[in-house]
Specification:
With 216 residues, the protein is of the alpha+beta class. The protein has helices spanning 14-31, 41-44, 79-83, 114-137, 149-157, 185-195, 205-213; strands at residues 2-6, 54-59, 65-73, 99-107, 142-148, 163-164, 169-171, 174-182. Strands 1, 2, 3, 4, 5, 6, 7 and 8 form an eight-stranded mixed beta sheet that branches.
Length: 216
């Protein structure tokens, strides 16, 4: 299942937003060889979250967030154009009303646990299919993916890492990969086989927030 959370609406759904950021925090701690205290909420909720991106959330059958991604238009501030302004080639700067940037991919499951791989597959598939549908609805031609090396390896293993645009770049000591997806049937084919039948049903945000208020 999929939920779409507009950034400007986070104050209306505080428990849902907190769960999304907690997922990002736990994912960052799992992939980095650092003490737990070295990776905090402040380090994973960054400036780009203040720009009110659209968040795409993968929801499991227990109505918990198991995957998340954020989207920003490239006509404004983005990770690729601004966080890497000093190190990326000028030719890599992408600004177009037809292209959005996807970043902040976070997944709950751990790659080396076989029982959890189905959770990963479904979350990746749902997010990818939803991303393609959102892009088509917005009349986009492409999506730029800005992923940390762990997320990029995970996508590569599943055959849905997109077209690599540049060698890995470094940001705050972390390796970042940039990929290009062409919106349409080709992009859908990369992800739909992972999502499963009827997996991408939209979930009402108010219902999810209410469930968290009740302690579910």
């Amino acid at each position: 299942m999929i939920a779409l959370l507009p950034g400007e609406s986070r104050a209306l759904f505080p428990r849902l937003a907190d769960e999304m950021y907690d997922l990002r925090l736990s994912a960052a701690r799992a992939r980095l060889d650092r003490p737990l205290g070295a990776v905090s909420r402040l380090s994973v909720v960054d400036y780009f979250d203040s720009l009110d991106p659209l968040y795409v959330l993968a929801i499991n059958d227990a109505e918990r967030i198991v995957g998340a991604l954020r989207l920003l238009p490239t006509t404004g501030v983005t990770m690729l154009n601004d966080a890497f302004a000093a190190s990326a080639p000028q030719s890599l700067r992408i600004e177009s009303p037809l292209i959005w940037e996807a970043s902040g991919l976070s997944l709950e499951a751990i790659e080396n646990c076989q029982a959890q791989e189905k959770i990963i597959d479904r979350a990746v598939g749902e997010i990818g299919v939803a991303l393609n549908e959102i892009a088509q609805a917005a009349a986009l031609t492409h999506v730029i993916g800005v992923f940390d090396s762990g997320a990029h390896r995970l996508l590569s293993f599943r055959g849905c890492a997109g077209e690599t645009l540049t060698p890995p770049m470094s940001l705050d000591g972390e390796e970042i990969c940039v990929a290009l997806y062409e919106v349409g049937a080709a992009m859908d084919a990369q992800f739909s086989y992972l999502a499963g039948a009827d997996a991408c049903r939209l979930v009402n945000l108010a219902n999810l927030e209410s469930a968290r208020f009740r302690g579910r």
